[in-house]
Amino acid sequence: MSSSELTAGRHSRSPGDAGFNIQTPRVPTFLSLSLRKLRQFGFVSLLILAWQYISGVWLPAVDATLVTLLPPPSAVALAARDLIVSGELPAHLWASLQRELIAFAFALAAIPLGIAMGWWKWVNEQIDPLIETLRPIPPIAWIPLSILWFGIGDAQNQFIIFLGIFFPILINTVTGVKGIETNLIRAAQSLGASQWHILTRVVLRAALPQILTGIRVGFGFGWMALVAAELVGASSGLGFLINDARSVLRTDIILVGMLTIGFTGFLIDTLVRKLARRLLPWSLAATR
Amino acid sequence: MQTQSQLRHPFRRLAVALGLAATLAGGPVLAAEKAQFTDWGWPQPYEKVSEKSINWLKDKGWWPLTVAWQPPFSGQNASLVTINRLDFLAKRGLEAKFQAFNSGPDINEAITSGKAQVGNGGNFPLTTLIDKNVPIKVVGITAPNLKHQTIVPNDSPVKSLKDFKGSNPPAVIGIVTGSSAEFYFQIAAAENGLAVGRDVVLKNLPLSEQIQLPKGIAAVVPWDLTASLITQEKKTGRSIDVSYPYNIYQGSYYLRQELVDNVPDVAQALTDALIEANLWIRLNPEKTADLLGEEPNLKNVPKTLLLQQVQEYNNLYKPTYVHPTPAFWGQENARIAQWLKQGNRLQRTLTAKDYENAFAPQFADKAFAKLGWKIPTQPAAIPKNWSGKVGQHPYPEYDTYLTLKAPQAFPEKGDLTKAWQFNGKSFKP
Amino acid sequence: MGTLIVDRVGKTYPGNKTGEQTVALDGVSFTVADNEFCALLGHSGCGKTTLLNLIAGFEQPGSGSITLDGVPVRRPGRERAVVFQDYALFPWLTVEGNIRFGLETQGRIAAGERQRIVDEHIRLVGLAGFERHLPHQLSGGMRQRVAIARALATDPQVLLLDEPFAALDAQNRLLMQDELARIWASETKTMLLVTHSIEEAIRLADRIVVLSRRPGRVRENIVVDLPRPRHEDSAGFIALRRHIRNLLNDEPADQLAVEAASVFPLA
Fold first, then answer.
1. Which of B80, B186, B298, C232 has a 20 to 30 A CA-CA distance from A255?
2. Measured between CA atoms, how close is B117 to chain A, in angstroms?
3. pLDDT over 50 at C144, yes or no
4. Three-class DSSP category at B299
5. Which residues of A touch C (CB under 8 A)?
6. Per-residue confidence (pLDDT) for residue C111, from 0 to 100
7. Which fold has domain B51-146+249-427?
8. Where are the domains of chain C?
9. pLDDT tens-digit profile of A13-24?
10. Where's the ABC transmembrane type-1 domain (chain A) (predicted)?
11. Do residues A208 and A216 touch, judged by C-beta distance below 8 A?
12. Given an 8 Å threshold on Cβ–Cβ distance, is B132 in contact with A249?
């Protein structure tokens, strides 16, 4: 085609004329989006339906008492509705979140400690044996000691949760620092950075993806330690809700508590991952 | 042998004949009296369960039977340990394994799933089972008047519950939430003018932690044996309030209803074993304390305390305390159910009838008939001329460890329907 | 000023399991005059990178000394900036941020002056318009340009380049060599370039120090007299290349074949 033909054609061209198969993209409707989401949750939906059948129809026919042990989703939903409407569930959720957040604030001390351990060999040598001994001890085993140290109250609960969060952050920080490309440090040195400058401007930033992974994992561990932590000395919280429902055989409330814990944990994890993606767009490690 | 000459006398002949007749008649009676009871008063021989019933249990997967019990729950622990160690079920042809649990609610889970077929619990756990329509039947009472106390550390300035009024910040009470202790404390707080949530707050604290009287707690509310462990053995705390005035307590020994419906001889054997164990404990309190001390969960409890608890909860009252007396407990527990429903701890409103239906007194009735004991209409702790009425609060004094100077005498006039033996002594009605 | 004197430098690494020590460098001596472009050339394993690390101050020599304008080199410093083979850019900083890094560590430069220096160096390496890009959004060649700009922004006395173009493909390597020549012409400094490419050394350097295989010793210290810009077809270029090739050919045979394939693709 000559250039004049090209330019001439351009002005009068319309989808049908030129023989092009131009498809205007379809704007996704609410319906199509919902259907897509439903398809993603296909397996889960099937499970819930099966559960409803087993607990709602089959089990009562076999042995009505067993329904107490596994109430159907409908009963769980009803219990959830009651707890939400009465404000109890939001209150318990908030109480647990508060404990988790305060424990998390303290657990951030793992970052400077981890940097020190990753940076100076002698620090690592001295502290690592202690860490490796304490780390495998599950938070729940600390409960008796924690009561002796903190007495009964929120501080004791927060301590147990803190233990769950602290170690993953520490381990990941050390790994993150040790894994920094040597040349990054050397580049900073050859640009005249002081040791303090290197630690705060390079080491911390370079290890951040790994640290964020540690935060994600730690948050999860702390959240799981909730139920054990709130066993003693709590009068609020999701763990308390479960323990309390247990004493009156309210399995439906227990399930509401468990699902709330699971769902909230998932939300927090997603939040941290999104945050990581925002803060650290160059890093694959953080966003995975 | 008399000579022929002497037997010729007519009166002597009559006397000999009468004597022989008396001997022949009285012999079996005397022989029967000698073989009829064990030393601890249980009639012999043991009634064994039928082969058919054993097969039924085997088919159901309930062989051996699982019996759930609670080590720190006084009175009940001695009875159950005795049944186990003295083979009172085996003697009746039943095989059983005994499973220890930390609390009534824990046992409830096992009973509900059918994993345990015999259980023990306090008033609140029993109420939970009835509320959820779990099929059980109470066949006997354990731990009569289990003492619950509000205990403060020795150096606390608090002298009575009223002293907590106006606490700012609220005084923290360590208590096993959802237990009979919570029930007692809520009532006690109401009657002493304390607002829960303002003057005091309740924080869940297991018994094992309550013993420590941890920092941050103004008071703990345990039951025996933990309560006595703190105030009498360790002497680290003192009691400022006791549960007796607020409710008459009963512990329940209950079975899965299927046993009652399908194999009543098994239910009878289980009931008999409990009553027999109580009698053995009555005869051998020190040995009972020894047996308790051999339990892994009770190894660290001093023997003196175990013995004292046996005396307070197993041997204080007439052994007829074991009878379910459904009408009485129905009334008393309906009061509890009302409070629990108000506090959203129950889903249904339970009546005295609901409780009565959960009791199966027929097995205790039969056992009492075997023993020759009159069936009581009230718990043994209620004195004959009690001015109070069950279900109507506040309660005037009744027989407790604090008010009784000596164990209740048994048997007294009117307690027996026929002759009974205990510890080599015979008793007539 | 930037006169670099390497005087009888030796470096030995302790053995690990086998117990045998590795002698990386043995009595290496040469001088790089102020504003001179010097290339360190040799096969891999000849210790040229080790030597660069010693000059940069990342490691200490076992024997001998290194001085810059008479001052002994003991630790890294901004007067000896380094450009690494793998760029070593700070991935969380933009192009601007990377270049600004060395200026911020000084603390004595005002913000306005900092920005001026940064802009100047962005233009110098031809990256105008990419100030806000993050390193992962740039190609290899562009990243190396940022690295060069970053190193030059602090106005070092010596610029050390450790096989800076080895990670690039042949086309880009040639382009970057020209870029480096241009940059050096514009902001003349003492340069020390470590390379295994004879062509690269001849195209860029005033002086080529040829190192032997381990233990690294100076085979020959060659002054390159050819006029710039240097063409590969010129007689002087070809002659020098043959000379150096022969020098390196004297090395043991088996290794040489492998090296030959990578250094002389047209041979």
1. B186
2. 13
3. yes
4. coil
5. 181, 183-184, 186-194, 197, 201-202, 205-206, 208, 280-283
6. 83
7. D-Maltodextrin-Binding Protein; domain 2 (3.40.190)
8. 1-79+157-251, 89-155
9. 444 444 445 555
10. 96-272
11. no
12. yes
